[in-house]
Amino acid sequence: EGSGPVLLDEVRCTGNELSIEQCPKSSWREHNCGHKEDAGVSCTPLTDGALRLTSGKGSHEGRLEVYYTGHWGTICDDGWTELNTQVVCRQLGFKYGKSAPERYSEGSSGPIWLDDVSCSGKETNLLQCSRREWGKHDCDHQEDVRLIC
């Protein structure tokens, strides 16, 4: 049990959100709870295939990065389609998305993990889409995928 004010109630996350702010929930401090109902979590390390958007104006836009073997890396835009974007945005907990204009670009110096990604649009996870092997690409960071979800 915790102590002090109860801040949130009715939190319903899908698991793909980047922060608890993106989850459906009651208004802050509106609850019908006691501390016997306090939630707790145990965090597990990131798994290969986790996604994030970086270097944008918020957590809903920017350069798409994928986690693999302990490192975040980028995805090349060769053959990238709007279907791919929809799969990524859904995986991140958003309803839809679009490719971002170049003005959101900020160079990355990390690895380029994926290239030639092709989704049908029905996938729930980007790793279900066809793609080259991890780290196999013919790209530079000017070709990093950038999105707005």
UniProtKB/TrEMBL annotation:
Cysteine pairs forming cystine bridges in this chain are C13-C23, C119-C129
- Can you name the source organism? Thalassarche chlororhynchos (Atlantic yellow-nosed albatross)
Q: Give a Gene Ontology cellular component term annotated to this protein.
A: synaptic cleft
In the UniProt record, does the keyword Disulfide bond occur? yes
PANTHER family hit by this protein: NEUROTRYPSIN, SRCR DOMAIN-CONTAINING PROTEIN
The protein's UniProt keywords, in alphabetical order, are:
Disulfide bond, Glycoprotein, Signal
Q: Where is the SRCR domain?
A: 1-44, 51-149
Specify the protein name.
Answer: NETR protein
Looking at the keywords, is Membrane present? no
